[in-house]
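Lecture 7 notes: from sequence to structure.

We start with a single chain of 133 residues. Read the sequence below before looking at the structure.
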Amino acid sequence: MNIEPLLDALDPGGRRPGPGRRAPQQITELQGRLREAETHLDHLAITRKTVTALVDRLPTQAASPDLPEHPDYPRILAVFNETTGPLRARDVCEVLDHERLPKNIEGTRAKLKRLVKLEILDEVSTGSFTRRQ
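Now the structure, written as tokens:
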């Protein structure tokens, strides 16, 4: 079934390009998209070279071998590295952008207690923690 007459009837102004007139437009459009993709790929290659070259310049951080493998632990230690006084679990939750819900505060408190057991933090008074000196 040929639907061209039907499409022509629906577009009486003849604005619909025919199959032969549309192909060059598509080719031009696809060539433009290909050039954009190639440029993007070139930029990614430059970025990779830059990052690879900079990796050797970064100082190696000695990770604590006893540190649990949860993403909050390094963030908690960073909080204690930036503060001088004792912190409570509620304060740590706030800095970590956790909602101040009881379950989050208790989870953070448990992590702080675990860091005390690992002798990384000290509990100076009930619920107040500092970095071990």
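Residues 54 and 60 are 12 Å apart (CA to CA). Keep this in mind for problem set 3.
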